[in-house]
Design a protein that fits this description.
mainly beta, Ubiquitin-like (UB roll), 1 helix, globular
Length: 76
């Protein structure tokens, strides 16, 4: 199954189709997003460390879905 994923950061977002066999880690790395800084959310729910290597199907990702890394600002 193909899932429309809006992937990005606070500043930049793109929407692309991905097969449900990819992981959030693969998507974020493919978009050159450093997910080690900030918190990564899928559809508003924070991902835990173990979730990054689960497939979109295993995470029950809806289509469309949002995969966003929200970085904390230094002045916050």
């Amino acid at each position: 199954m193909v899932i429309q994923v809006t992937v990005g950061t606070n500043l930049k977002k793109v929407t692309k189709p991905y097969p449900d066999t990819v992981t959030p880690r693969q998507i974020l790395e493919g978009e050159h997003i450093d997910f080690s800084r900030g918190t990564t959310h899928m559809c508003g729910v924070p991902l835990s460390y173990g979730d990054f290597d689960k497939t979109l199907a295993e995470l029950h990702a809806p289509s469309p879905c949002f995969l966003l890394n929200v970085a904390k600002a230094d002045n916050a």
